[in-house]
């Protein structure tokens, strides 16, 4: 196997050159890069490696930003809900916001561009009945309804780029000047961006790969008055707003984009909300603009003989890698941060690029690399989670980010990454571009977003842990490495085209009222009938948490007759329930040594049919159940945080729901801590240990043929497929 290549490492001026060179050789790097806040060393030519350089189209030239303040980026923000106790009300605009990040825009007429709303009634307050004082930053409502609640939605200028601010705080950059983002939608700024880039390419001929970080609009990060994160939405379009954009939107779509359509009662259109028509229109409007302008920068890059790659982060808003126009950008590659298996698949499955690259954790920053820190443990955990996803759909390259000089002080970490990089290259070469074995049927994840949010469901800030959602992220994380083909479909897809014939099992998971469960889509009779018909004719349905949840016509779960369970919300307490476990040895529980951990489980689940197979109960509530409906089958699971045991539960549930349990033993490991992947075209197979303990497992080729494999902690073993004979 190759001992070099497919590895990008951050380097920096000022670091000991011999030490840097030694690490690069040990890791088998064939490319180097800088990071935000670092410069590349002078010895680049000696290294004879491909050189990446970060590029920030909308903040590279701070002189332009300061000379053209009218073309800075903007956003709408909203004041806290304030209750009137007298006949007039004063609301402080910037209360709770960080004044070094945002500045109120008084240049554009507040009476035209702002909106004051009575949140008790939802009505817009007549602009003639309120005024604003630019000196004090206070809006006065001159005549209000006492004890009604009001908000002001107003325009602000962005006076500090979100990523630079985060890095400034994390890395203690002190007095380093604050960088201001400017808006590519303004014609003079756009002309400057393109000319500046041409000059930059000419002045940086040592750069082989331009790493756009990213293009124009940052995902939403709003800081509070203490410079701490107040609101973060990795999918948020808040920074794409400006009066110019609003005017162009109205000209194209034929209606005015109200401020309320963007602040959305203060929820800012989090992806947990069912997206409104207006918000979908705004996203597509920006998607068209961003893809068109990005293509121009990519063309300039290619004309200069360089590669163009995009970082899936920072200013990625509007690119939408799973959007219909993304391939038109013409990028060579996408690189993104790998937090786990789900985020790896989010990168590796992106269509329309020549290759993909994963930036592994930890980032070489002082919040991890400090005296007493343990970056090696984080690196191992990150690799083990990502590896199972790599076996299904690999990225083409891996790498790291940050300050290599920090990492160099941790010799165990250097050795660990050396092993990871060698293991990755072996995986990639033995897969050789082929696909691992999967069953004939596909699994579809059904929610309100569908394909657009492939491998992005239930995330808030790029896969970070939240108590409210980790049970659902567990489903996504499990799927990222399971031996099944996964698609993401929306309720609109079902309405327009029905269910694809190659789909064998549909998963619907999430809290009631969210886009992931579906909310009021479940009041649509066509959707309900289509899905029930799918199951009745032999399909599988798996519901997790509060699937199909919408109170309608005497049922909370609209698929309750399919699932065999519903949720008690207090309306049927008069009905006596006699639920108790009756099928504890069900097929889907095979190999489980203890009860399933349902995480922050949904409570008060009850059976609605005598035939419901109650597999596990927890504190008097149904936690796991199965049911038959016509020729099809369903499984209900209250919650499924990621663990090897829960991942195995989901896999067995999928096979059982698909009525394919007899096929389960085709390339299968009986130990839940282990998994395998088999590449029939290359003749290679691999067994991996997802735990940090030694494991022994039986590797089945089919029900009659297997071998026993012993694995070291976190280890793996390769085998030749033809060595397993019947």
UniProtKB/TrEMBL annotation:
Any one GO MF annotation of this record: 1,3-beta-galactosyl-N-acetylhexosamine phosphorylase activity
Q: Does the keyword Transcription regulation apply?
A: no
Q: Which InterPro entries match?
A: Class_I_gatase-like, Glyco_hydro_b, Ig-like_fold, Lact_bio_phlase-like_N, Lacto-N-biose_phosphorylase, LBP_C, LBP_M
Decide whether keyword Transferase is in the record.
yes
- Which parts of the sequence belong to the Lacto-N-biose phosphorylase-like N-terminal TIM barrel domain? 5-438
- Per UniProt, residues of the Lacto-N-biose phosphorylase central domain are 442-661
Q: Which UniProt keywords apply?
A: Glycosyltransferase, Transferase
Q: What is its EC number?
A: 2.4.1.211
Top EC category: transferase
Official protein name in the record: 1,3-beta-galactosyl-N-acetylhexosamine phosphorylase
């Amino acid at each position: 196997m190759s001992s070099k290549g497919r590895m990008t490492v951050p380097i920096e001026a000022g670091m000991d050159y011999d030490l840097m060179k030694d690490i690069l050789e040990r890791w088998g790097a064939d490319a180097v890069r800088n990071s935000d806040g670092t410069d590349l060393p002078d010895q680049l030519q000696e290294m004879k490696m491909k050189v990446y350089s970060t590029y920030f189209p909308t903040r590279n030239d701070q002189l332009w930003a300061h000379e053209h303040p009218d073309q800075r980026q903007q956003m709408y923000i909203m004041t806290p809900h304030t209750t009137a106790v007298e006949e007039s009300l004063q609301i402080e605009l910037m209360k709770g916001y960080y004044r070094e990040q945002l500045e109120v825009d008084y240049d554009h007429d507040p009476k035209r561009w702002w909106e004051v709303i009575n949140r008790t009634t939802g009505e817009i307050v007549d602009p003639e009945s309120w005024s604003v004082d630019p000196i004090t930053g206070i809006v006065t409502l001159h005549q209000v309804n006492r004890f009604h609640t009001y908000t002001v939605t107003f325009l602000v200028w962005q006076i500090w780029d979100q990523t630079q601010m985060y890095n400034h705080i994390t890395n203690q950059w002190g007095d380093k000047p604050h960088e201001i983002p400017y808006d590519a939608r303004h014609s003079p700024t756009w002309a400057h961006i393109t000319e500046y880039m041409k000059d930059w390419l000419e002045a940086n001929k040592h750069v082989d790969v331009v790493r756009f970080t990213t293009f124009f609009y940052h995902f939403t990060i709003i800081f509070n008055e203490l410079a701490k994160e107040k609101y973060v939405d990795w999918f948020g379009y808040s920074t794409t707003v400006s009066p110019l954009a609003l005017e162009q939107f109205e000209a194209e779509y034929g209606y005015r984009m109200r401020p309320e359509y963007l602040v959305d009662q203060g929820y800012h259109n989090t992806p947990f909300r069912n997206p409104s028509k207006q918000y979908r229109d705004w996203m597509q409007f920006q998607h068209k603009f961003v893809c068109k302008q990005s293509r121009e920068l990519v063309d300039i890059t290619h004309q200069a003989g360089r590669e163009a790659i995009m970082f899936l982060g920072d200013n990625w808003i509007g690119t939408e890698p799973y959007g219909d126009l993304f391939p038109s950008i013409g990028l060579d590659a996408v690189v993104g941060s790998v937090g786990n298996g789900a985020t790896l698949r989010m990168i590796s499955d992106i269509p329309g690029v020549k290759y993909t690259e994963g930036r592994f954790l930890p980032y070489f920053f002082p919040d991890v690399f400090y005296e007493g820190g343990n970056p090696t443990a984080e690196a191992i955990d990150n690799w083990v989670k990502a590896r199972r996803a790599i076996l299904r759909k690999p990225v083409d390259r891996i790498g790291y980010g940050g300050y290599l000089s920090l990492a160099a002080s941790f010799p165990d970490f250097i050795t660990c990454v050396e092993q990871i990089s060698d293991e990755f290259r072996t995986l990639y070469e033995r897969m050789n571009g082929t696909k691992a074995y999967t069953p004939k049927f596909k699994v579809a994840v059904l929610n309100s977003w569908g394909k657009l949010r492939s491998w992005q469901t239930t995330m808030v800030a790029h896969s970070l842990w939240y108590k409210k959602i980790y049970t659902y992220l567990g489903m996504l994380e499990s799927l990222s490495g399971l031996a099944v083909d996964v698609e993401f479909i929306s309720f609109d897809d079902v309405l327009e085209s029905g269910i694809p014939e190659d789909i064998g099992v549909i998963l619907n998971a999430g809290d009631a009222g969210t886009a992931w469960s579906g909310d009021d889509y479940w009041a649509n009779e066509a959707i309900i009938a289509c899905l029930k018909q799918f199951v009745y004719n032999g399909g599988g349905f798996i519901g997790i948490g509060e699937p199909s949840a919408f109170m309608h016509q005497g049922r909370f779960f609209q698929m309750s007759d399919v699932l065999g369970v519903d949720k008690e919300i207090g309306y049927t307490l008069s009905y006596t329930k006699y639920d108790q476990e009756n099928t504890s040895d069900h097929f889907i529980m095979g190999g489980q040594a203890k009860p399933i951990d349902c995480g922050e489980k949904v409570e008060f689940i009850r059976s609605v049919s005598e035939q419901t197979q109650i597999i596990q109960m927890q504190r008097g509530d149904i936690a796991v159940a199965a049911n038959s409906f016509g020729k099809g089958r369903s499984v209900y699971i209250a919650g499924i945080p990621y663990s090897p045991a829960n991942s195995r539960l989901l896999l067995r549930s999928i096979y059982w729901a698909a009525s394919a349990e007899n096929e389960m033993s085709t390339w299968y490991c009986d130990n839940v801590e282990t998994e395998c992947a088999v590449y029939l075209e290359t003749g290679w197979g691999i067994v991996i240990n997802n735990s940090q303990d030694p494991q022994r497992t039986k590797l089945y080729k089919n029900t009659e043929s297997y071998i026993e494999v012993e694995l070291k902690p976190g280890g793996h073993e390769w085998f030749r497929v033809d060595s397993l004979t019947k």
